[in-house]
Amino acid sequence: MMSFLALLTRDLRLAVRAGGSAFLALAFFAAVVTLVPFGIGADSALLARTAAGILWVAAVLASLLAFDRLLQLDMEDGSLDLLALGPIPLEAIAAAKGLAHWLTTGLPLVLLSPVLAVLLNLPSRGFLALITSLAIGTPALSAIGTIGAALTISVRRGGLILPLIVLPLVAPAVIFGAGFVGSTIDGIQNGAIWLLSAFSLGAVLLSPFAAASAIRIALSG
Amino acid sequence: MFEFANPKRFMDLSGTVLPWLAAVTGILLAVGLYLSFAAPPDYQQGDTVRIMFVHVPAAWVAMMGYGFMALASAIGLVNRHPLAEVAAKQAAPLGAVFTFLALVTGSLWGRPMWGTYWVWDGRLTSFLLLLFLYLGYIALWNAIENEARAARVAAILALVGIVNLPIIEFSVDWWTTLHQGESIFRKGGPRIAAVFLWPLATMALGYTGLFFTLLIIRMRTEILERRIRAAAMYSGT
Questions:
Q1: Which of A72, A165, A199 to mutate to test the interface with B (most CBs of B within 10 A)?
Q2: Hey, is the C-beta of A131 within 8 angstroms of any chain B C-beta?
Q3: Which of A119, B58, B151, B160 has the fewest CB within 10 Å, making it most exposed?
Q4: Contacts of B191 (CB under 8 A, 6+ apart)
């Protein structure tokens, strides 16, 4: 447990320092959300209808930023080999990486989203739903992104292929997450939030195993 | 299964089987095409119902292809069967093309039938995601230089993406969608008229035969390429 926390603290510190990705993701999130109204026009009604979707897509794209650095840096300087030999299993290492990513990227996105939702004219009924859906869905993004990072460790410029791998896998989260906000605004009860929760829970619990297998393959080569 | 781990045995066996498989596939496709044109027009859709005979088999083979790829990946990962990895690698482009064909033929069918080329419902969306899963898998294979490592990493990706297959299959039950529900693989048997079922089944068998014919050809080509590379290495060129 202490080792897990030590690894987690190390990754958190690395992420918030200069060259880390914590604030970069927030800035990218804001930049994407700012860019969309230039593209689709500033019609308030249109923005209100599409706000949830825009915020969700921007959250996915902002989460993607940090993934290629997540494991590749450790691989290059040899720390991943040392960690693999350490006291905690590789699955726990992968889980720690995913958790660190969520704490430094996902959680700040959740906290910033209401501010940006105001820019996009999201109806007030939807704010709580937006925060809830992002809070439940961003862990899934971090978990699946960790799998993608593990798969592309040994790829030069793996940052280009990682979105191609990760986006089809996180599509259900976007569908259910944005769908939940939309149907709450319309006053419709459907199971979207439960499906999102189930997807998120499954992703968070199962991703360390897939990521650890991929890391093992990369280390054995 | 492990008798065929030896590439030479696989080459011998597949060399014998391939002409027969290709011939049977050709006959099935020819008969299927004839039956597709001979079937009467549907009372509602008219002649456009015939697109079903190229669209549905392509979709079935696209999903079967991914299942085959995932199974081969699992065998390659767990049992370290060398030809399983080759099979998975060569199945991916085939599956991707069948997925693309299913999407295009379905889109062309959708225009006269539903009035639209595309709709973001459960079935079509998850099928589009299947295409991206295939493309990501192929990209991952090409991105990693070490062949053995690429095989194992791609195998993990194939297995992670397998969750999409049940979603595609059951999407028409779970969500009210524009795409029609299950007509054939359902409790109580097929709900489709026999005069349409025969061309459909024949074309489906033909498409499956085509998939495996092309797969065997591609696997044989890969094995020959590896032999050439090995021979070049040993001769120092």
A1: A165
A2: no
A3: A119
A4: B183, B184
Q: For chains A and B, what is the number of CB pairs under 8 angstroms? A: 57
Tell me if A197 sits within 8 A of A184, measured CB to CB.
no
Cβ neighbours of B140 in A, within 8 Å: 151-152, 155, 161, 165
Mark the ranges of chain A whose per-residue pLDDT is less than 70.
18-21, 158, 221
Structure tokens at A220: 């054995």
Q: Per residue in B153-178, pLDDT tens?
A: 999 999 999 987 777 777 766 666 66
Which segments in chain B show pLDDT lower than 50? Answer: none
Q: What DSSP state is assigned to residue B40?
A: P
ipTM here = 0.87
pTM: 0.89
Consecutive H or E run containing A82: helix A79-84
